[in-house]
Design goal:
With about 160 residues, the chain is α+β, with helices and mostly antiparallel strands. The chain is about 25% helix and about 30% strand. The longest helix has 18 residues. InterPro entries: DUF4189.
Length: about 160
């Protein structure tokens, strides 16, 4: 009986490497081996597995500018809001707090920057772009050549990393 168990042990020891042997590249073995990539890097050993990087998730952030065109200084601005409707609602509320009676949304934007410039006549140009500098330049150059303009507002409402 001992000899029988010893023989089975020897057969198992020599048989297992044949069963788990990897396929040679370009050799058709009729399915008698394991392809090199079946077990992953380093034969699938958990010790060598690289942890998966978490997926990065970004959330949009909204900004808005509201103005009452008939009352100087009746302006409401917000940035960093989670929705367009919330940004508009809050900008209108801030405009109303500055004595605006007929406040209107002049600009709503997300994941970018905005700027407002005015000229000597009180006309305003609102612009939005991917950077603050670009938005400011667009607002300042939005007037007729020769007009004097002043930058009165610029801010960014950039996306927020949530994971």
């Amino acid at each position: 009986m001992k000899i029988f168990l010893a023989m089975i042990s020897l057969i198992a020891v020599f048989y297992v490497p044949v069963v788990l042997g990897q396929c040679a590249t370009g050799v058709n073995t009729g399915g008698q081996c394991i392809p090199p990539d079946a077990l992953g890097p380093y034969n699938g050993s958990p010790r060598y597995r690289q942890p998966q990087e978490p997926m990065i998730i970004w959330a949009d952030r909204w900004g808005a500018i509201a103005e009452d065109p008939q009352i100087l200084g009746a302006i409401g601005t917000v940035v960093g809001k989670k929705s367009k409707s919330k940004a508009k609602k809050d900008a209108l509320a801030i405009c109303a707090l500055h004595n605006g009676r007929n406040c209107k949304i002049m600009l709503a934007y997300y994941n970018q920057c905005a700027a407002v410039a005015v000229d000597d006549r009180g006309l305003a140009v609102r612009a939005h772009a991917s950077t603050r500098e670009e938005a400011e330049n667009l607002a300042l150059t939005g007037f007729d050549p020769g007009d004097s303009s002043t930058l009165v507002y610029s801010a960014c409402s950039l996306p927020e990393r949530i994971q």
